[in-house]
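Action item from last meeting closed. Structure (190 res):
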């Protein structure tokens, strides 16, 4: 079958390019062209291997999308697809090139700015306060009210919470009012 592939036109091969040996034949035909484009685009500080891979993907895209009835030869269509892939590769590489520079912080800036990192004492104090709030909720609220509170804190609206608990919405609203009243009455939870 290799001999017959060599005799086929690019257009004919593009129709059969789903088979690996057929694509290999097209790849060998376009390797010189791809090499010249890769050299042309390598001045943009992109690895040659990345550019070659992008060019081969462009060739594969050309095989998948080529339509003879549109009037262009396969070679022309493939050249456009390969060139566009290479341009995209260069653009994507350029866009990501300065991310470390744009997101980095100088050491001097760190020295002069207040630290956002909590100290172990702050973490312990926050944990103790949280535990006190949870303990107070446990003491102050009934089991039913705790279920209502969990649903509200989980993002359920009044209707959804009532449906979840299989209760009337009015009962859910009343429980919510009792929860608010009890939590406001306790000064440590405000």
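Sequence:
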């Amino acid at each position: 079958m290799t001999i017959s592939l060599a005799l086929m036109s690019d257009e004919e091969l593009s129709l059969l390019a789903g088979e690996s040996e057929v694509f290999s034949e097209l790849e060998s035909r376009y390797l010189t062209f791809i090499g010249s484009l890769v050299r042309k685009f390598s001045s943009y500080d992109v690895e040659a291997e990345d550019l070659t891979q992008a060019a081969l993907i462009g060739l594969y895209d050309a095989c998948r999308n080529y339509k003879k009835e549109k009037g262009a030869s396969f070679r022309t269509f493939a050249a456009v697809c390969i060139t566009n892939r290479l341009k995209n590769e260069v653009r994507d590489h350029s866009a990501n090139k300065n991310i470390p520079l744009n997101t980095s912080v100088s050491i001097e800036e760190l020295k002069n700015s207040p630290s956002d990192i909590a100290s172990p004492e702050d973490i312990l104090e926050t944990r103790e306060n949280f535990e006190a709030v949870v303990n107070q909720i446990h003491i102050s609220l009934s089991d039913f009210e705790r279920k209502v509170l969990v649903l509200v804190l989980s993002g359920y609206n009044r209707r959804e919470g009532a449906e979840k608990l299989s209760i009337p919405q009015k009962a859910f609203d009343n429980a919510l009012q009792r929860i608010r009243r009890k939590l406001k009455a306790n000064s440590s939870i405000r």
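Note appended to the action item: The mean pLDDT is 81.
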